[in-house]
Amino acid sequence: MLEKLHPNVARVTEVLRSHDVEGDVVVFPESVPTAAAAAERLGCEVGAIANSLIFDADGEPLLVLTSGAHRVNTELIAGLVGAAKVRRASPEFVRLHTGQAIGGVAPVGHPAPVRTLVDTWLGKHEVVWAAAGHPHTVFPTSFDELIRITGGTAAEVE
């Protein structure tokens, strides 16, 4: 378990509180870097996990919060955001734009705002779980709350 609150988790928690998010960050003793691992640990459907995926959209970061049950169609989202090319970002690109490591990227708490798409499929779940800035952490939220706290746009991403 995280002996001391990791700085990224502290930052995410601060941002969540500033947006009046009521759910508490849950810290696991082991990493839950995938939707399947998180769903198993939480006892929920994999579709209720909000994967935070960073893409490189013509050199700019694009965060796609997608249901753990989906794969993102990069051609589709390129059209949605008006980018010539959207591709998976490198770990270095992710850390540069979020301050967080792949497997624990939160929807908030980044050094600067990141354009965000939120998978409409997440709206099918009353509670969804998102990473909280570290691979050992998640927090409960909802589709509507994710839109609100990220300033994101609802989109079909698959």
From TrEMBL:
<dbReference type="Pfam" id="PF04073">
    <property type="entry name" value="tRNA_edit"/>
</dbReference>
<feature type="domain" description="YbaK/aminoacyl-tRNA synthetase-associated">
    <location>
        <begin position="30"/>
        <end position="148"/>
    </location>
</feature>
<dbReference type="InterPro" id="IPR007214">
    <property type="entry name" value="YbaK/aa-tRNA-synth-assoc-dom"/>
</dbReference>
<dbReference type="InterPro" id="IPR036754">
    <property type="entry name" value="YbaK/aa-tRNA-synt-asso_dom_sf"/>
</dbReference>
<protein>
    <submittedName>
        <fullName>YbaK/EbsC family protein</fullName>
    </submittedName>
</protein>
